């Protein structure tokens, strides 16, 4: 819309709005003037003049009423209405101007002055009322003053002439003032229109902003300089599982989770603040990932009065990112790292070795008896075994180490941050490998769901073959994996259920280049049950088992020593089992019968393995492994511990080594300081492995 037309329409409305008041005053003054002048003027003339003035005033009033009832918003009709208004003003000016002719007493100065006073006052009032239209105001002033001036001037009386001159000056002053007054009125109308337009725009903007706040898909809050929330939208309240009423007025300095406050305070300093992270609500159970952007809020004088924060709930995005990360770097079945993450962590371990000169170790592990389970009970049972295998391996290593599923029934264990000394690192890695091997050889009891939704318990024995390679920063990832895989296949060839170190790793420790290594048994005080005879015999068994391991390495050179150590160990086992059963009988051990049966089975199997090994049916390594591990170590730790409460009164259980012993016997991160000189020995001809 044209601004000039809008201003003209506003001025026209102003003219018509003041019209009725002006007409009322005009009629009152006309009556008053007619009454006063009737003393010196013919009453007929006075009445005629008064009737004319009243008629004009009523006509103008009717015109104003018609205008007010019309569509004043139609600015195209403004000009016709203004023309009508001007005609009405002209008629009113003519009617009042005629008073200088009809109501002017020729010889009565007092009534002349009174007439002049009325017309001058009416002129001043009209000037103000009609200032919005320069044409109307000018015509009205001239039509009222000019006839009176001429009438006084032609009387040729000195006083009248002087008054006429004064009226001319008065008329000139009014016309000059009129221009300034008209300009002020026009400017005021323009400013009013502009202000109204700005107010309208502001209202629209405010309404739009409020709609945006209320229906925004993100949370929005306003807060003052004291970090007190002055406004919050529904989205933010829903995000925090609370109400807008509870949030408004909340002092954010009292929040339980203050991780967002630095970003909020940054806005109060005139900067933009950002925060992305986890947030826990104070007054609800909301636990979210949020992204917050904060900006300063200014008052009318441009000073910072608070801040505005926009909060996005990014929980779903974070969960999706985590899911994508898991798909990319974790095995979907066992939930442990996959080959991709293993490669990344192996690269990191090699880089760390370059910085700290410490060794790392990588173990390639393959399940020995996995396929029969799948063939017999299906892939569901196989999946359950893989899950349990991953759990067992994870329980044997530190949190900083890595167990990954390499594929199928193959797992890889990565140990980092071992020792700077290669021999110590080899010992530590061997202990962890042995701990894993022992854990993996325990029976698996799997709850398998059938097609009819019923469950059956499947017990399966599945050992593992483990290949170990020690490395530092000089090795490459591909070479490390290749050597560990090769060592694992050597473990398979050597009879399975054993640990084989890579040749290159052993060669660098000053040992010979045979196929495998074997760990000595180490006695810990926590293995004691509290019954002196049994504990002494257990220590003796450990000693005899280690002697047998040592003589196995030199069997080719001194077979008689090996045979003698073998017979001494077997004899002591038989004697110990008999002594143990007698002691348990005296203490009325409830499971004595089952315990004695286990003794009988172990002795019979040991004798069969001995005969087979001497005849060449099995390797010496398998025989020594069975005697040292199954008959001596595992039987004591897994079976004998059940009767330990008879002597310890429940103070100690051998279900698993205690924390300190667990670390000493298996954790690569806390290697024991007192390690026997022959804790890791090379094997002779047959491939003795652990």
Write a structural description.
The longest helix is centred in the first third of the chain and has 58 residues, at 158-215. The chain has 690 residues and is of the alpha+beta class. It is built from 23 helices and 14 strands. Mean pLDDT is 83; it is low at 505-517 and 650-690. The strands form four sheets. A five-stranded antiparallel β-sheet has the order 2-1-5-4-3, with helices on both faces. A five-stranded mixed β-sheet has the order 7-8-6-11-12, with helices on both faces. A two-stranded antiparallel ribbon has the order 9-10. The relative contact order is 0.05. Strand 9 (444-449) and strand 10 (455-460) form a beta hairpin. The two termini are 97 Å apart. The chain has four domains: 3-196; 217-318, PAS domain (Beta-Lactamase), CATH 3.30.450.20; 330-515, Reverse transcriptase/Diguanylate cyclase domain (Alpha-Beta Plaits), CATH 3.30.70.270; 525-656, Up-down Bundle (Four Helix Bundle (Hemerythrin (Met), subunit A)), CATH 1.20.120. Helix 1 packs antiparallel against helix 7 (158-215).
> What count of helical segments does DSSP give?
23
Profile the largest sheet: 5 strands, antiparallel
Give the CA-based shape: rod-shaped
Mean pLDDT across residues: 83
Q: How much of the polypeptide forms β-strand, as a percent range?
A: 5-15%
Please give the alpha-carbon distance between the first and last residues. 97 Å
